[in-house]
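Exercise 7. Predict the joint structure of the components listed below.
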Amino acid sequence: MKKTLLNKNSRTNLITYLVVIVAFAVMQTLSSQGKLGSAVTGYLVPVCCYIVLAVSLNLLVGICGELSLGHAGFMGVGAFSGVILATMLKDSIPSPVLRLVLAMVFGGVLAGVLGFLIGIPVLRLQGDYLAIVTLAFGEIMKNLIGNMYVGMDDSGFRLVLATAKPKLIGKGHKWILSGAMGITGIKRISTFAVGFGLVLFTLFVVLNLINSKEGRAIKAVRDNRIAAQSVGINVTAFRMKAFVVSAFLAGMAGALYGLNFSSLDASKFNFNTSINILVFVVLGGMGNILGSVISATVLYILPEAMRGLRDYRMIIYAIVLILVMLFTWSPKVKEYTSVLADRCKRMFSHKKEAAVK
Amino acid sequence: MNNHYPKKTVQVPTFNTYRETDAGKPLVLDVRNLGIDFGGLTAVDSFNVSLGPTEICGLIGPNGAGKTTVFNLLTGVYQPTRGSVLVNGIDTKGMSASKVTKLGIARTFQNIRLFTDMTVLDNVKVGMHNQIKCAFLSSTLHLPSYYAAERKANQRAMELLDFMGLAELADQKAGSLPYGVQRRLEIVRALATNPSIILLDEPAAGMNPSETTELMHQIRRIRDTFHIAIFLIEHDMNLVMNVCETIAVLNYGRLIAKGTPEEIRQNPQVIEAYLGKEDA
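Solution:
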């Protein structure tokens, strides 16, 4: 009994961890030997970010069954708050790794708190309405950050909401975030190792959550709301938990993302980005965590790698998406792959028998 | 604030319906003048029923009489317009369905509502949700207390599944099970909430005669093993008359009769409700 119980879940989890660790080891050795081009090295951190975003959105869409179209909003909140914190702490904390981690935690917490506040009205809604409100949330965040001026002077921290750049006040004043111009001159402190750490942390949190009492309750709410209530599960509380954890992780990924570039502006975190993350989740498979990891990696690198093809790359990208969808959903393909898997298994067992003989 | 009702205890033999062994014990379910209106339509009105701690009571009535509405009122899915429901002496007024369940009332559904994408074992463990003591942080980080709680939950869930003869199916997806088995799994899930009363909404629907006979034994066995009250809606008169100690009959949202199976069988109002009035 215990055996069968441990196996299925922990086996898939183990495979997920292994794939990620092996991928990290390979990339790390290649880059330390200088065998990776500068373009590929540049993808490493964003790929980590998008993996975290896809996995965290999968928790919300695949496991909890709530469609959110504003994930980029949480990412943006995390990115800007993380970068601002890292810039402000530049002098007081010399270690870049510690600063990065602090920025990520701060970005995550801020996104999580925002997720909680948004969740109070939003989680009363269901289905399409939740999607519409999260969509609006993402756009509001983008525009809010685009009109926000954050700076520091001798007397401390300043935050102004304005459409035009306010006049400098106080001595030694310096704007960090200047509205639609965004943040420029960011010290790039994100590293692949920390990105990998964040991916592992995300997998750890999400996979553990799925296999616990909380995760079962979240899945129960997805499968049948009324039945979940009938066994004493507070539906709103568990939707909220999934929502906040998802926002927290997205905020952390955002901070990592923001600190990987020398300039950052709010228009990056628009509806397109939200939809891209959703595409990663859908193509990787709803509720399939390893699928999200793989599809985020492949689908992020694909358009980047095809930059040479210019305008044609989006056409190719779209064709790839359609093909992947056909391959994962078509019953004929499924039948074919199951036959193939059977044949492989039979071959394998034949070999085993032969070896025994 | 919930406890200013006088606590009623089981009186034997008030209507000659309660079990002797329940005498003097507090009522597990006490429904007083319950009613609900949907707009101008009165679906249920002046519904009174009370169950002793180990009583099996049936709720019958023609189609559309309001039986499932009564269950929805008892479990907090609907808020009553009038009257009150007391579970273990506590008024459920204004409570959400999940809170009412915590008072010790569990149910199954007429149209099966399992968590179809989850395994049979996980379905039962979801039922045990409030019994598993494990904090959010502990379950996200898988601290030692998580493993202890999970082990205990697995053991209990397997015991319950074994009780209903479903132990071998523990790893199967709930949605892939045959209909009769799904019904039994729903009962196990309800039992997993550790209730003091369980409401079964047409447990024999869609079952063949031999499955129904087995179900009858199981219902009695549930009462005798867990010492809980059972309140069931059923159209299969053979099951109702054989298993239930008391029967309440509902017609057009009103209680028209209450009593032992013998009394119900001979009650002219019940016969009229089911068969219509005989023309003179």
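Discussion. The longest strand of chain B covers residues 41-51.
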